[in-house]
Design goal:
- This protein has one domain: MetI-like fold (Orthogonal Bundle).
- Helices cover about 75% and strands about 0% of the residues.
- The chain is built from eleven helices and no strands.
- It is elongated.
- About 0% of the residues have low confidence.
């Protein structure tokens, strides 16, 4: 039986999902494991001689601040991924709990939640972050940026999940569970949640993209904490010191290529899993 189930599952792993998972796994594993092999703070300036070319000791060379570009990039990927996953977890928890409960319970509770959702949907998050970044002059901590992204980023997913819950609450299997005496939480968890699970996974991945992209955009224009290694801060310093003109093109090319590859991996994972879930629903 187990062999048959494996044979049914394996052919469904489409190429996009496989490639995306491979890219994300390599970048995530590398950014989490490699920092254990160095004791040097990558953000510390003047640690090495400035503007050294690539070598076995410095795989991508050093920059005009005396930092090893490779190790700075490794820590940047780790911090950006940690920020993205943290924001995505918070957004997913809030959006799922409010969306499912509002769609199933209905009544005055749903109306209150919908007003709450619409209020946050109308508030653009990027201008809020830009204003905050300008006020604190680039000293915004990761925690503050993450909290703001969570507060202003959950509403769209919650609205979609609410719509799905509305369409499911009148289904026959939900009515059967209600008539059998199951409580609200039990019906939501056992009967409705499995049908929105695939959307949650896709939304989770897309929120990681949104969080990393937003923080990187703020860092590039100098409105985030550029002292902390992130994909945005390394590009900020490279632009600030004219990396290409001083003969250090890898200082800016490496983080841009890494960012593009990471976004490509997350996008392929999201779209590949979406196709996989759609195929499973069609087979079922």
């Amino acid at each position: 039986m187990q062999t048959q189930q494996q044979r049914r599952w394996l052919p469904k792993l489409n190429s996009r999902l496989a490639i995306g998972l491979t890219i994300v796994t390599i970048l995530a594993a590398g950014s989490l494991i490699l920092p254990f092999f160095t004791s040097v703070d990558p953000a510390a300036q003047g640690t090495y001689l400035k503007n050294l070319p690539p070598s076995p000791a410095h795989l991508l060379g050093t920059n005009a601040l005396g930092q090893d570009i490779f190790w700075y990039l490794v820590f940047a990927v780790r911090n950006s991924l940690l920020l993205g996953v943290s924001v995505s977890m918070g957004v997913t928890i809030i959006a799922t709990s409010l969306g499912l409960s509002a769609g199933f319970i209905g009544g005055w509770y749903e109306r209150c939640v919908v007003v709450f959702m619409d209020t946050f949907i109308t508030i653009p998050v990027l201008p809020v972050l830009i204003v905050l970044g300008a006020v604190v002059r680039g000293n915004t901590s990761f925690m503050v940026v993450a909290l703001i992204l969570i507060v202003f980023g959950w509403a769209w997913n919650a609205r979609t999940i609410r719509s799905m819950s509305l369409s499911l609450r009148e289904r026959e299997f939900v009515n059967m569970a209600r008539f059998s005496g199951a409580g609200v939480i039990a019906i939501i968890a056992r009967e409705i949640f499995p049908y929105v699970y695939a959307f949650m996974i896709v939304g989770f991945i897309n929120t990681i993209l949104f969080a990393i992209n937003t923080e990187a955009a703020l860092a590039v224009i100098g409105l985030s904490n550029v002292v902390v290694p992130t994909l945005g801060s390394i590009i900020f310093w490279a632009l600030n010191y004219n990396a290409i003109l001083i003969g250090q093109p890898l200082w800016i090319i490496a983080p841009i290529v890494t960012t593009v590859v990471l976004f490509l991996g997350l996008f392929l994972t999201s779209s590949g899993y979406n196709d996989l879930s759609a195929e499973k629903r069609g087979v079922a």
